[in-house]
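User: I need a structural model of Cytochrome P450 from Cryptolaemus montrouzieri for a docking pre-check later this week. Nothing fancy, just the predicted C-alpha cells so I can convert them on my end. Input:
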Amino acid sequence: MILLILVAALLVLFYIHCIKTFKYWEQKNVYFEKPLPIFGNFLNVAIRQEQMGFALKNIYDKLDDTVPYFGVFIFHTPHLVIKSKEFIKQVLIRDFNYFPNRNQYTNEKVDPLAANVLFSLKNEVWKTSRNKLTPVFTSGKMKMMLPLMKEVTDQLEDILNANNGQEIDIRDLSQKYSVDIISSCAFGINAGSLKNPKAEIKKMSDQMLDEKGFKRSFAIFSWFFCPLLVDIFRIPFVEKESSQFLINVYKHSSEERKSRNVKRHDLIDLLNELKEEEVENDIFKFDDVRMSAQALTFFNAGANGTSTLLSLCLYEMAVNPEIQKTLRTEIVQNLDADGSLSYESLFGMEYLDLVMKEALRKYPFIHFLARYAEKDYIFEETGLKIEKGTKILIPMLAIHYDEKYYPNPNKFDPERFRGDKMKNLQYVYLSFGEGPRKCIGERFALMSMKLGLAMFLKNFEISPGTKTEIPLRFTKAATFITPEKGTIFLKIQKCNS
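Assistant: Understood. Predicted C-alpha cells for Cytochrome P450:
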C-alpha cells in the first residue's frame, strides 16, 4: 500500500511538473503545439519514425509569414524555432554575441574527442581555435591539396572505365571516393578504398558513420537533445573502435612524417605547423587529443557529408538530363590539355556552382542549426524576451523548402541561384550555416564534390537504370539524410567522342 501511494504521489508530481513546464510558451504568447509528457513534440522522432527536420517542417508549414517563430518542446526542454529571415540574421550575425555557441553537449570524460572539436567548443576557446584553424582552409592551402585529390580522381576514372555500360551503386562509389580523398588530405595515406572493397579504413568508416543503425542514431540524438542519457550510459558521440583506429592512423602518419621530414601540404602538415607556432599563454593548445579531434572531424564531415551530397547530385543529373548536358559542356570547355581541371577553373565554372548550390539546397545534410542564448535577449520587433540558456533552432530543411524563397521547391532548378538572385536568399540559404560559426570546411567540401562530379561527367553520361528508385526515398530513422535502401543505382555510359 505504501509503495502504491508513493508511486501515485510521484505520478501526481510528474503531472504537475509537466503542466507547469508546458505552459512556458503559452505564458510568453508564442505559438506552440500541445506536447506529450516525456516526449514533448517529438514522439515520432524518439521512436525513429520521423526525422527531426521533417517534424519541425510539419509545424513550420502550418504557419503563415506573420508568425516569426514558434515554440517546441524536446522532451521537457523548450526550444524557440526561428522562421523569420530577419530574426535568423539577428541570431546568426547581427547579435551573434548573444548566441555564440551551439547546443552541442560536451563531456570530456565520456568522449574527449567530441569535447575538443571546433564544432563543440564555446566562447573564447572556440574563438581562439577558430582563428588558429581558419588559415588551414584558405584558398591557397586548398590549392596545394588539389594534386592529392587528383591522384584519387585518376583512380575513380579507372573504375568508371572498367564499369562502362553498367549499373553501379553510385552512393557506394561516392563513399569510397570520399574516404580516399579525406584519407589522403587528412591522414596522408592512400586508403585504396576505390580499388580494394575490403580496405580497412573504409570498413571503419562504414562502422563509424552507420546512420541507419540504432546505436549511432541513439548516440547522436542523446548528445544533441538528452545529455542525461550520455552521462548515465556513458555513450560516446563517435563509435570507439573505429574512431580509435583512425586516431592511430593519424598519429602514426604524423610521427612518420616528422621522422622522415616529409611535406605533403595536407592536414597533418598544417596542424603540425600550428602546433609549432603556439606560445605559452595560448588559450587553446593543440595537444594529441585536440589534433586527433580535428582530424577525426575532418574525416567524418568529408567521408559522410561529401559522399552523400555527391551521390545525390549525380542522381539529380541522371533524372535531369538537360541539366547534365549543360553542365558537361561547361566542364569539357574548362579542361586543360591533360583533361584535368585547375583550382581556378574548378571554382570559376558558374553552372557547376549553381548545380552544387541547388543540390545542397534540396538535400541539406544537416536539417537544422542550433544555438542557445548566452544572456537574456529581447526580440525588439515583437517584444519577446528569452532568458539566458534558452535553446534556439533554425529549421534549415523547412526554410529550404519554403515556396516564398524557393518556388516549386521539389524541382531541381539550378537557375534559382543565378546572378543577383543569390542576394535575396542570404540568411535563408544555410547549407554551410551563416555568420561567424559558418562551416570552416566549406571550401574543402565544395572542392572535393565539384572535382568528383566533374570527373563523373566529363566522359560519362549518367542515367536511371532498372534498379534506380524514382523518386528516391529516405530513411526516417537516421539523423542525417540517408537513402532508405542505402544505395543509389545509376547507369554509366561512355560519351560519344
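Before docking, keep this in mind: The first strand starts at residue 69 and ends at 74.
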